[in-house]
Design a protein that fits this description.
With 469 residues, the protein is of the alpha/beta class. It contains 19 helices and eight strands. It binds 6-phosphogluconic acid.
Length: 469
């Protein structure tokens, strides 16, 4: 029976939550899962929302249940599973039906899938916010043909998170893989925000000797100020939680080895291809990789002994808060600059202010500072965020604190790679005469690569045999 206005494949955690969200907003949805029992269980547990859900036992039945032209959301693991699902689905669909990949796809895969000459239409859609976001309002970053986006926009805007001003956090970012690209940068920033929080947590725990409860209270306090954000909020809750097994703080029983599915790494790799510096994100990816090398780290501590780490009063939690504010601004400035670089390189017109706006609610990196970033980017999207007056002023006030924290960390062996990378980048960005003249000299010395001169003279190679002194 053809009753559904949209379909969804893949009733895992995210798929189930998204399907319930769609059903709740009044759109009848047909669902299918590879394991039929999962579909039946989902339907049985849907409560009153079951009235808007059509469970189906085969792909054919799913397709027949949706009104043409059809739109079907894929919520299956990124990579081969998406290709396999498209291959199985495509023969059952017409050319004007639409497949929407809502997983965490690599945007290069989305570009490839969008370029397919035959088969149904295709959109790539980044969805952020975890299970709760998918269920009650995610942030949605779409990519593909604008007309296809417009066709399903009523559903997506209805299910998306709403920012404080009521604007739905669902935006078309551009052609092909643009949506998944923006989602990848979101995840790179997610890694960076998390790493910087972990670094200040380390300063408080190891440098200041604060117990988890005090650290929780500090994060909670910060969440009431400039640093208000979902990640700071949940960090307070993580730090406050108690392990039911041991009655110890939960944080104190968790192994310090971070997992990753790879989206932050994609951002770092792509940034290198684009020659767009995102050192805070790169440091965050590095931090996760180092964290996972537990045996080597244990061997390192056995060989060199632990770093002294304990500070003697040189850093206060107020200084840490200011340092975090600086680190966050620097990280986002890098992320938005990378998006600008991609826009130019891939021929997209990625809407920077809109991206800041779509990240204001629903997604993992949502924060109040994104409101101000959206304003600054709408004044001048081509200007690096550190040069927007509002953020220049904030950096002037906070970078001295960042410097103090990074310096104290370096002196006492408290690793702060992301905060340090932000600071080094800032110092390079505010230095008109840097040190790359030495690199150019070296390149010319061993490879006759040539250089430009400050005085503009038309001589582009050195006489390397001529030495002073
Ligand atoms: C989101 C998140 C999500 C991501 C997880 C896990 O925006 O909702 O980015 O998509 O998959 O956060 O990512 P890692 O396993 O790489 O940490």
């Amino acid at each position: 029976m053809t009753t559904a206005s949209i379909g969804l494949i893949g009733l895992g955690t995210m798929g189930s939550a998204l399907a319930l969200n769609i059903a709740e907003k009044g759109f009848p949805i047909a669902v299918w899962n590879r394991t039929t029992a999962v579909t039946h269980q989902f339907y049985a547990e849907a409560g009153s929302l079951a009235a808007n859900i059509v469970p189906t036992d085969s792909l054919q039945a799913l397709v027949e249940a949706i009104m043409p032209p059809r739109a079907i959301i894929l919520m299956v693991p990124a990579g081969k599973a998406v290709d396999d699902q498209i291959a199985a689905l495509a023969p059952l669909l017409s050319a004007d039906d639409l497949i929407i990949d809502a997983g965490n796809a690599n945007f290069h895969d989305t570009n490839r899938r969008a370029a397919a000459q035959s088969g149904p239409r295709f959109l790539g859609m980044g969805v952020s916010g975890g299970e709760d976001g998918a269920r009650h309002g995610p942030s949605i970053m779409g990519g593909g043909d604008r007309a296809d986006w417009d066709r399903i926009a009523p559903v997506l805007t209805a299910i998306a998170a709403k920012a404080e001003d009521g604007a739905p956090c669902a935006t078309w970012m551009g052609e092909a893989g643009a949506g998944h690209f923006v989602k990848a940068v979101h995840n790179g920033i997610e890694y960076a925000d998390m790493q910087m929080i972990a670094e200040v947590y380390g300063v408080m725990r190891d440098g200041m000797g604060l117990p988890a409860g005090d650290i929780a209270a500090t994060f909670d306090h910060w969440n009431g100020g400039v640093l208000q954000s979902y990640l700071v909020e949940i960090s307070a809750r993580v730090a406050a939680a108690v392990d039911p097994l041991t009655s110890q703080p939960m944080l104190d029983v968790i192994l310090d080895s971070a997992g990753q599915k790879g989206t932050g790494r994609w951002t770092a790799i792509e940034a290198q291809h684009l020659a767009a510096p995102v050192p805070v994100i790169e440091a965050a990816v590095m931090g996760r990789n180092v964290s996972a090398r537990l045996d080597e780290r244990r061997a390192g501590e056995a060989r060199f002994g632990p770093a002294p780490r304990r500070l003697s009063g040189e850093i206060t939690v107020e200084t840490l808060e200011q340092a975090m504010i600086a680190g966050k601004i620097l990280c986002y400035a890098q992320g938005f600059a990378m998006i600008s670089a991609a826009s130019a390189s891939f021929g997209w017109a990625l809407p920077l202010p809109e991206i800041a706006r779509v990240w204001r609610a629903g997604c993992i990196i949502r924060s109040s500072m994104l409101n101000d970033m959206a304003v600054a980017l709408s004044q001048d999207a081509g200007r690096n965020l550190i040069l927007a007056p509002e953020f220049s002023a904030r950096l002037e006030a906070t970078v001295p604190h960042l410097r103090q924290v990074v310096a104290a960390g370096a002196l006492h062996g408290l690793a702060c790679p992301a905060l340090g990378a932000g600071l080094a980048w800032f110092d390079m960005m505010r230095t008109a005469r840097g040190t790359a003249n030495m690199i150019q000299g070296q390149r010319d010395f061993f490879g006759a690569h040539g250089f430009d001169r400050l005085d503009g003279a038309d001589v582009h190679h050195g006489s390397w045999g001529n030495t002073q002194g």
